[in-house]
Amino acid sequence: MTRVLVSGGTGYAGRFIVEHLLANGYKVTVGGRTAPEPGFFSKDVAFVPLRLDPDADQIEAFDHVYYFVHAAFDHLPGHYRGGEGDDPQEFRRANLDGTVRLFETARDAGVRRCVFLSSRAAYGPQPPGTVLKEDMHGKPDTLYGELKLQAERSLLSLCGHGFVTASLRATGIYGPAGAGQRQKWAGLFEDYLAGKPVPVRASTEVHGDDVARAVRLMLETDTVQINGETFNVSDLSTDTHEILSILQHLTHCPHPLPPTGDKAALNPMGTRKIEALGWKPGGLELLRETIGQLV
Fold first, then answer.
1. Which residues span the domain enclosing 255?
2. How do the residues of the chain divide into helix, strand and coil, expressed in percent and rounded to 5?
3. Does the pLDDT of residue 77 top 70, yes or no?
4. In a 3-state reduction of DSSP, which class is residue 247?
5. Residues of the chain above pLDDT 70, percent
6. pLDDT digits over 172-200, tens only?
7. Which residues, 6+ apart, have CB-to-CB distance to 86 below 8 Å?
8. For position 78, what pLDDT does the model report?
C-alpha cells in the first residue's frame, strides 16, 4: 500500500481526506500537534508529530512517505478569515513560512507528490455573479486568503519531474463532523428548531467527501495533467432558506423559514478543469442526504 502523510488529518476537512484514503486502500499517517483519540478514525492510522514551524527540522516525519497532503492550518477556533486574532505576525509565520518549510522538507525527503488544500479566499472579492476560474488574478482581501495564495505560489516554484504538486481551492465544506466536533451548521439548526432568528445568507458549498475525492484524484491522475496546477473544488450555490427547508421537511418543524438569500450575487466557482479529470460532486441529492444524516 502507498503511504500518505496528511497534515491536519484530525481537522474538519482533514478527517474526510483521511477516511476516504483509508477506504481506498492507502496507508495513512496523520501529522499534527496531538495524536487522534482511539476510535476517531474508522481504521487505525499512524501518527507523527508535525508542526507549522519554519524553524523545526521535521524531515523524519516524511520517512517512507510517498505522498503528502497538506490540510493543516493554524487559526482561532471556528475562524479562518480573521483567524489571526490579534497576532497576524505569528499567523503568517505558521501558515505561510511553516507551510513552505513543510513543502521544502517533503521535497528534500523524496516525497513524490504534494497536494495543498487551499481556499476560494485566494480569489478575493469579485463583481457579483462573476464565475471564479483558475486563470483569474487573485486579489485576496483577507490575510487568510493572502497566505493561501502565497503558499500556492511557493509550492508551484518547487514543482518538478520528481516532485509533483497541485493546489485545490476549496469552497465552504459541509458534512458530518468527527467525534467531539460540531458540524458547521449545528448552531444554525439549533437556532431554527428553537424558533430563534436565523441569518439570511447565500453561499457556495461542497461536501467533505467530494473534497477528499478531489485529493485522491490528484494522487492518481497522470502527472502531466496536474503538475503545477490549481483546481477549483466547489459544488452548490445554496442559502440558509434552502438548507433549512430540507431540515423543516425532515423534522416537520412549524417555524417559518428565513427569506431566500441572494444567490445571484455569489461568485460560483468554475469546476470544468477538475471535472475534465473525472471529478463529479454530489449536488443537491448529497446535500439532502447529508442533512438527513445530521438530523
1. 186-204+236-267+282-294
2. 40, 20, 45
3. no
4. helix
5. 96
6. 999 999 888 899 999 999 999 999 999 99
7. none
8. 60
Give the cell for residue 96. 505561510
In a domain, 125, yes or no: yes
Cβ neighbours of residue 102 under 8 Å, at least 6 residues apart?
Answer: 7, 50, 52, 58, 68, 70
DSSP characters over 277-295: TT----HHHHHHHHHHHH-
Which distant-in-sequence residues (6+ apart) come within 8 Å of 209 by Cβ?
16, 20, 175, 282, 286
- Please state the pTM of the whole predicted model: 0.95
Query: Within this chain, do residues 112 and 196 fall inside the same structural domain, yes or no?
Result: no
Reported as half-sphere exposure (CB side, CA atoms, 13 A), residue 13 has a value of 29
pLDDT in tens, 280-295: 999 999 999 999 999 8
116 Cβ neighbours under 8 A, 6+ residues apart: 70, 99, 103, 151, 152, 155, 165, 166, 167, 168
Residue 8 maps to which CATH number?
3.40.50.720
Distant-in-sequence, close-in-space partners of 200: CB < 8 Å, separation ≥ 6: 239, 240, 241, 258, 259, 260, 261
To the nearest 10°, report the CA torsion of 183, 187, 193, 195.
Answer: -170
Distance CA(99)–CA(93), nearest Å, equals 9
- Coil, strand or helix at 119: strand
In a domain, 151, yes or no: yes
Same domain for 171 and 253, yes or no, is no
**3-class secondary structure, 227:** coil
